[in-house]
């Protein structure tokens, strides 16, 4: 039988009579191929083993099944009439055959044909779960099953998971240009880091330069997370490009019924060509296989899809949708049924619908969305006299029917009949109710819609959160509306409310209480802290700018708990934690990116950046230097030390932001006259300009005011606006004006044509897959390129045409240099050389720019091409022969590396497995894969861990595969078995311990907890304590303590905790009456005495605070309490005392700011009081008069001049002090201690009496102070000794600061003269 292929819908004519002719009756004529649509059949393609099963796209633009007759592209449509005229005028001229391998030998690696997977459909493929209640609004009341192929039809490698912040139906609105989406690339699907052309950061930087979106990445245990921010299209294109560079190309085979093949191909290949063009995937169907299996009704043919992961999944979904529409089971969406009727259709007492579901059974599955909150379309107005109402269908909330075709048709008809009846019976009523009570009517915090309907026969429709309406809509029969209204009032009245005056706590806020409340609300909303509180307490919190917040809960107790938790959260966020900064909106985007994250990591300050339309300042909030993901919201007032840390960090963060703004010139805006016809080219020019900017420079904001389809009348309007720093705007403006001028000049030269010889055998290389290469060159060189019959014609500006010609001729020279090597490699090593998903093969081909052909038998590994035009010749390739073809230098390098890899695999082919518990896999892998990487680096073995989707055995265990040298495999197996044994011995215990004992178990700074763990044989690492013993954080979490670890350790810890609790419960409490002035004797410096007493007697001592009345409380075991009490009474009993009279004017001189009292207490255990008298006020210290603005002595260069050019003042030291005496009562443990204290006091009084004068010596030049001090203080110490005066030289040496001399008048003047003498001798 002749072999023919259909590639992307193109096919050749088969003149023979075979079973395939019946299949070809659907094709009226051959497909008219165009140059840009030709497939590059030999481009490198990946193996199917790495093709991810991507989630269904949320893009509504591509959900619909492709039409059988899709519209042509603009380029193809423009060429169609010309081609028809040519074919009519000269029928003898042969048409370009895009199936010809000779005409279009593609570059790169060969394609491969994957092994056919089991059929993805059955008699009932559209698995839609039965309706069930209790789901949130906008979702269906059942779980939909995928219509995709079974697991065996998709690779077992990674799953690329997108997570988008794009608004879903009814979701929050996002501003243009601020779309955010993230995808996760599993590590096993990615090209190994060492095999990438560039590091990940550089690859993403290159993508960002070419894109209007910003693509960033971060590591996660499941894979590499790529996050894009920017315009929707730019984000998706950027993510797709980044994923393509980091991941392997994918290839899957989708088995379809042979009878559906014609539907997939379409008339003249229109359907399959449309799918290929829209998704960018290469789609091949083998006609030979279809013809052979055509007689069998259950026969299947394989549709091979190749390309990047996104394109493959999109094409696969479209093909499977076509299959589902034309098989015995169908999926149907009823978009014409108003959602207001859904509760009536799904009511439990709906006999006809229930009978229909019971009759059809598994043949029919119905999925009806639950509708109790409208999103975009509000219900109609209430009619007069409760007349029937006409509702408008909502296409975004359809009813899903799936199953046998007839069953779906019957269900559809029954639904439509019931809807017609409901249209004559149903009305609506609307009532206004406070918004914060809505959620307690129906939904997660209220009753279920099913229960409400069962009791009232009506449904309820609430307004969404983004709408300010208070109207609740009741839908139902007129005679049941009143009953439903009463139930709504009952539900709302049962709700309790509490008031939280948040602003009252911050009445003294520097910017005002309301301003702080606004700042705090912005931050808590961004952090979703209020939403977390609402979920925790099943309540609703309604903040407002006045600071008087309302809390709504189902009962009063819950409301009180929610209020207490809220107030704790508020108290942890005082004004000292916040700092607003006015920042121009130009910097907002920059602060949302890496700069904001850097400030968070460096200073522990989170930035709350307003939206583009919000003129609020940027808010700085101190969080701490813990990682943002691990941050826990504070719930208590910060200490003074913490406040100081807040302020310092906020000031540093604010300074960083100000430095960023100060480093740029003034922000300006400028309009540029840019004809709309040049907008596309201007965009590309601006992108290139901004990509060339230095790293870290903020690009100028560019706004294109006119649309790309602007007419000529708008050509001279200023429709491009630039905004940014003055110098950046000027540079881009100059570049744009020069570019526009050049484009205008080029328009005048578009008629220039350049024709030259181009080898026809390289034409397909020039064109590329579906014209990709030729279109890229046209855009790069800004010329039109046509190639035909060995001639290449360039049309455009002369300089650009010549540059393009040079490039094309250099490409020809490169293609002329080609070599072929045939390598004999045993077949068992082919899979290793190809790599997972063909990654190794693609790396070799990309690195050396060659094509590597493995034998056709390796199709499962991604090395061959299904439907390849060279399949006949490829089938003759020996099973142990690998062919390398490409430029001589690259082919030689690829050959040598293949042989080196072969030798490596021969040396490292030992393998083994280890059985571990499936629940141990996360700990075995570790955070971010660190534990697994450590095992691999330590042993040198390759360790493959099954993913979470792999089913475990009946015993809950899975197999970990090891591979490498014998020594490395044995070492890895030994380590994993040890970890597995330890994990298997791990148990978890929960102890219910009264929360009042939790703090005692933990101990001060965790000392008790650490002792309990270490004494039980646990780890001595603080980071492991929280893993082993977990305490509840809040009252809502209960009182259970969770202990996890090895059995023996856990049992000992539980025993220790229980013993400690039992000991605490058996404690006794006693009180010791101690005079308040003696409490400090029990406390000591920094609480040292109390800690020593507690440790010595094993008790807890509670001493009343200063100003509080009461006895000292002692708690502990009875015998310990008794001993401690006796000791306390002993050390605090009345001591012997002695009174001395001290002149009031010398009181503060002797006390020396309390230092004298502390010395007596520490050295002699002697305390001092004043018999109830109040100490005198502290006299003011004299200051030099000349330092307060008077003229200073002139500065000279001669040090000796200081002696004559100086300022001197002399004052009496205690002239302003009080007269009289104050008693000093000395109390001590013994007469000896009192005698020693009295002696010290007498000496201090004598010294104080001598200090009767103070002098100030001001020198013109502070540098002369060093002469007064001398080397090592020798000069100043000598003067002090000789004069008996105390001399203080200022440390900061500020001009005008005086040298202070205290002592007797004669001593002070003697010291002055000595200092001046030193200065005279200094020269």
Q: Can you describe what's shown?
A:
With 1323 residues, this protein is of the alpha+beta class. The strands form 14 sheets. The chain has a four-stranded antiparallel sheet. A four-stranded antiparallel sheet has the order 2-3-5-4. Strands 41-43-45-44 form a four-stranded antiparallel sheet, covered by helices on one side. Helix 10 runs antiparallel to helix 11 and helix 26 runs antiparallel to helix 28. It starts with a strand and ends with a helix. The relative contact order is 0.06. The N terminus is likely disordered.
Count of beta strands: 45
Q: Give the end-to-end Cα distance, rounded to a whole number of Å.
A: 118 Å
Structural class: alpha+beta
Largest sheet: 4 strands, antiparallel
Net shape:
extended
Query: Runs with pLDDT <50, length 5+?
Result: 1-23, 25-173, 288-298, 706-717, 858-873
Overall residue-averaged pLDDT value: 76
- Tally of alpha and pi helices: 44
Q: What share of the residues lie within helices?
A: 25-40%
Q: Strand order, biggest sheet?
A: 1-7-8-6
Please indicate the percent range of residues in DSSP E strands (runs of 2 or more).
15-25%
Radius of gyration: 43 Å
